[in-house]
Amino acid sequence: MPVPTNRETTTQPTQLHERPVGNPPVARTGELITMFINDEPVQVDRGTNVLEACRANGYDIPSLCYVKDINTAGSCRVCIVEIEGSRNLQASCVYPVAEGLRIHTNTNRVRRARRRVVELLLSEHNRECTSCVRSQNCELQKVAYKVGARYGKLAHQPVHEPKIVKNPFIVRDFSKCIKCRRCEAVCKNLQGIGVFSPLNRGNETIIAPAFQRNMADAACIACGQCVLACPTASLTERSYIDEVWQAIEDPTKHVVVQTAPAIQASIGEEFNLPVGTVVSQKLAAALRRLGFDSIFSTDFAADLTIVEESNEFLHRLAKGGPLPLISSCSPGWIKLCEHFYPEFIPNLSTCKSPMEMFGALAKTYYAEKIGIDPKHMVVVGVMPCTAKKFEAARPEMKTYGQRDVDYVLTTRELARMMRQADLNLNKLPEEEFDQPLGFSTGAANIFAASGGVMEAAIRTAVALTDGKAMGRLEFKEFRGLRGIKEVTLELQGQEIRLGVAHGANNARKLMERLKQGEQFHFIEIMACAGGCVGGGGQPITSNPEKPELTPEYRSERAKGLYALDLNKELRRSHENQAVVKVYQEYLGEPMSKKAKEILHTHYTARGKLPGFDFSEQEKAGDKQEIPVGNLPGLLH
Amino acid sequence: MRIKGLPDLELIKKKHLPNIKARLGNNQTAGYQVLCCTGTGCSSGGSEKVIKTLNHHIKQQDLQNNVTVYKTGCFGFCKMGPILLVYPGQIFYCLVHEKDAEEIVTEHFSKGHIVERLLYKEPNENKIYPQLKDIPFFQAQQRIALRNCGLIDPEEIEEYIANDGYFALQNVLHKLTPPEVIEIMTQSGLRGRGGGGFPVGRKWAFTAQAEDSPKYVVCNADEGDPGAFMDRSILEGDPHSILEAMTIAGYSTGANQGVIYVRAEYPIAIKRLELAIKQAQQMGLLGENIFDSGFSFSIELRLGAGAFVCGEETALLKSAMGQRGEPRPRPPFPAVCGFRNKPTLINNVETYANVPIILRKGATWYASLGTEKSKGTKVFSIAGKINNTGLIEVPMGTTLRTIIYDIGGGIPGGKKFKAVQTGGPSGGVIPAQLLDTTIDYESLGKIGSMMGSGGLIVMDETDCMVDIAKFYLGFSQDESCGKCTPCRVGTKRMLEIMERITQGKGEMADLDELEELAQDIKETSLCGLGQHAPNPVLSTLHYFRDEYLAHIRDKRCPAGVCQELTDFVVNPEKCIACGICAKACATQAIIGEKKKAYYIDRQKCSKCGVCQTRCPKDAIFKAAIGGDHASADQPGNNHTTYPTP
């Protein structure tokens, strides 16, 4: 039986970084060879490795460092097998298959060695498993159980390092790090950033940004893909659950919750529903039972963003620039641009992200409407994203002196809150979101998939310029797994070139092309592969194959959202009557003065080595400091 | 001048050969030739100053026409450095100080009298050897890789050419095809000298077969074993042989670019390599169209950043590419995917040093040396508790006894030989009963050690084998890159057990745990460093288990080394009650009064050892706890006699 096909179209570029981490990735050749697993002949692809070959043939070899195509370092040594003709045991994840290769997985030697390796890892692991945030969802825990590891005679020498909680998005706990280096590989190979590297050597090795700087002080884009990749709880999101519970309990506070479009398609996974199950109504019911005062969805603001952004685009198109207009919905991408491409900051759409627009509007329009002092309003965003936590803390994200969004929770944190509140998503009734900020069109739902923002914007732009209510609706050329999607369309008799990139590595590739002078009119960029459905705040599986890092799995989540869009009556953002009403009652018209005050923002050039090149920042005339260690949660 | 072919080489050789011939004893020139070692050992002993002063006095006494001083590479007898060798007569002066220069010039060069006090005196027999060839240290040696060290001036390319240098390259480029060269290497039976012992011909053939291009030739000069300095001496004494060999390797494998990865801790070697590359480029022996053959080859240097693991080939390649020096799993082997992810041939310095002479003298000649499976000679650096510390080259198959007693001159101070460590931290100890083991890859492997790069560290009865094993394990643990679990965590856990044992806190179960852990680390580690890190522990456990038992059961260190298990004791028979030790003691642990032997209060003693260094009569010594001396120096027991070391 052949091993699963290597993805034909993939966001993970096979020729990745100039400095790939680890061995070359698995490359499918299509040519079958025969090898022997435990003396049984099997047919496998010539380009695969022993681990993949075994897994495809029913042997669940344990692994901790291996992530297909992303991390092939062979460093954890958990996946070792016996290979005939080889003196030592070999890591199967990096051992290429060969014709006639004979391997053994089920020998005393293999079992003993695997157990020993895991015992060694446990010997310095912070074994607070029962109270760990990744308990029951921890790969080390599962592997230890699987190989039958015991604490044995080895002294327990846990690393005594306090958790590093110095930024609002990601917490590092070295006492739980097993040095599998997946974070490093994901950051370098998948995202093309490379914040992490091993520091020190031998037993002192830690995986951290250069000079052991805080992630907030490095050129980290806060995307959280490292959190998804981490097999233990060494990398976790900065949790704001306690703060949110406190706000909910506070009778003086009106707590508004908004959930991003991606949440409804992914939170089901936390409750054992199949990937891609859309649970919008059950989600609303759960939020209400958690005790939030107003249950809204960010999808509403997504429609609003589209109206603003497509107007901004048409405006720029008419006035001649600066083009291309680059979308600003993804806070990871914004940070990437600020660090690596500050020269393109004028190209970024000045529109706030939907989450921030929502927060701003909640504390102005909605607060006025229900007659509440915005000071007593707390806006909580539930996002598939760790970078949103950073975004919420940005000094730019304030309206009339009020912070737009007070707390950001990830999908995982919301699920944790639901578990704490005894809520079983599967058995909850179906309810609707509150009005008016809970209504959305199909265009908003697809925001969470790569190409969705572009498709939604073009739906509106086409309709606005054609003046026809029934312009073209679906633009499937923006969908799919290709890392960079390019489309040329005609708009107002003008050829416009559109680009969509997802995954920071692809974003950088596209930006490099822009730097070379390539012309685009409008570009959508998402920092995470697949878009928000693949965000760093999404559910993590303890499956050793790490499906949540693959584009296929992420596109399953997206499929649910596209189905949602398909079944909606209204599928163009500007048709959202709630949005229309907001303009009528409060904002006036798109790009009006008030809209600009509330819904638009500006950005900060940061440089590749923030903290090192002050001169460059001074030259740029932008001395705005990034408040590090003094961010949400701490601000209130 | 650009060398285009054989006639040009011959021309240079003709001009410079007389000097060399004189040194080789084949020709008497009119004047004196003085060879002074400028390797790291002698340099740090002040040989550069000696040369300067010599030249000064030669000029003063107007002997310039009669005496020429040459800088050379290492003679190998580092214990006796700085070394001067004077021709004619091959007079061997050792431990020369700059103050001696005037006397040498006046007496020897001017009057013709040999300065006897600077000649080599054999310590055991007290016999004086005026000539190098008679000195036992040099007698059992056969210098092939070191053929030019201590003979030619490494900073002059002409001297290298005069001693047949670059002739092999010329011959290869004009007369041999790449497969023919590889065939010669295969026939010669030369094996990698870096430690692994992989057949050189096969390695070259693999790289030649690789289809990708460009290809690279890399020289591993990241010698990191404690106490090993073979590669350094070759680079310092004969840099051109490496350049020539790499060019030949490039021609044979289809590479046009060479990289020498050399430790930054070898400044003299780096300087000489840079100079050699420059000279070779100027003469057209490196660069475009070498010898008008159409073959081009260039070499660049990469400096290591000081990590032992970078001697491992894949880690070296990563480091050479500017990445963190970490090994990666093989396959793919460097021959397929190496430097810049292209096919790469990687050999060690000593391996390359053998290449030109094999091609000049033929595979049959080389294969006639050594044993059946290990051909040729091997360079060793001998250090530790041995009289003649230094660098030697012996044919494979020489016994350890020959090396330690005949060449090395035995153990100083008449102490008893205990063991010799080969292969550095990756090797193992060889006890006295195996001294007749012959040195070759197979027999060393059989007894739990390994050839390694050629460091030999000799230990005598005052060395504690548990402590030695702990030291080597600590070294490996320190130098682990931290990539794979067994090496990063496993060696640490082993080290913790070893520390417990040496502190007297060991249990019998620790021994089983040590053995099991060692076995698992060997089986599961990613690279050679981890796979061999437990070797010192395993081999000492095998041959010196009684010492472990003494530490664990009796809580004593028989050799009196492990601090927690030893005491400083005053020998009352030697003590003259001067009180110096009591004054020096920081914790006021030494108590005594006039005319009575002092004693040390063990409760107060911090075991810093200052008293021992201050005692003018050597009356204070370290002794194992639990020995006969137990209460020897306590008040009232001063009459007790006990063994003194």
Entry keywords:
heterodimer; A: alpha/beta; Alpha-Beta Plaits; Rossmann fold; 20 helices; 19 strands; B: 645 residues; alpha/beta; Glutaredoxin; Ubiquitin-like (UB roll); 5 domains; five-stranded mixed beta sheet; 20 strands; 39% helix; 16% strand; disordered C terminus
Describe this structure in words.
- The complex is a heterodimer of chains A (636) and B (645).
- Chain A folds into 3 domains: 32-122, Ubiquitin-like (UB roll) (Roll); 159-237, Alpha-Beta Plaits (2-Layer Sandwich), CATH 3.30.70.20; 241-619, 3-Layer(aba) Sandwich (Rossmann fold).
- In chain A, the strands form 6 sheets. A 5-stranded mixed beta sheet of chain A has the order 2-1-5-3-4, sandwiched between helices. In chain A, strands 11-10-13-16 form a 4-stranded parallel beta sheet, with helices on both faces. A 4-stranded mixed beta sheet of chain A has the order 12-19-18-17.
- In chain A, helix 2 (108-123) packs across helix 3.
- The N and C termini of chain A lie far apart (59 Å).
- In chain A, helix 16 links the parallel strand 18 (494-502) and strand 19 (522-526).
- By secondary structure, chain A is α/β, with parallel strands linked by helices.
- Residues 1-22, 613-618 and 621-636 of chain A have low confidence and may be disordered.
- The radius of gyration of chain A is 25 Å and the shape is globular.
- Helix content of chain A is 33%, strand content 13%.
- In chain B, the strands form 6 sheets. In chain B, strands 9-10-8-7-11 form a 5-stranded mixed beta sheet, with helices on both faces. In chain B, strands 13-12-16-14-15 form a 5-stranded mixed beta sheet. Chain B has a 4-stranded mixed beta sheet with strand order 2-1-3-4.
- The termini of chain B are far apart.
- The model of chain B is unreliable at 629-645 (pLDDT under 50).
- Chain B is α/β, with parallel strands linked by helices and 645 residues long.
- Chain B is built from 25 helices and 20 strands.
- Chain B has 5 domains: 31-135, Glutaredoxin (3-Layer(aba) Sandwich), CATH 3.40.30; 157-367, NADH-ubiquinone oxidoreductase 51kDa subunit (Rossmann fold, 3-Layer(aba) Sandwich); 377-460, Ubiquitin-like (UB roll), CATH 3.10.20; 465-552, de novo design (two linked rop proteins) (Up-down Bundle), CATH 1.20.1440.230; 563-624, 2-Layer Sandwich (Alpha-Beta Plaits).
- The A-B interface holds A 19, 22-24, 73-78, 80, 88-91, 94-96, 109, 112-113, 116-117, 120-121, 123-124, 153-155, 157, 178-179, 181, 197-198, 200-205 and B 307, 323-324, 326, 328-329, 331-332, 337, 477-486, 488-493, 496, 509, 513, 517, 520, 522-526, 531.
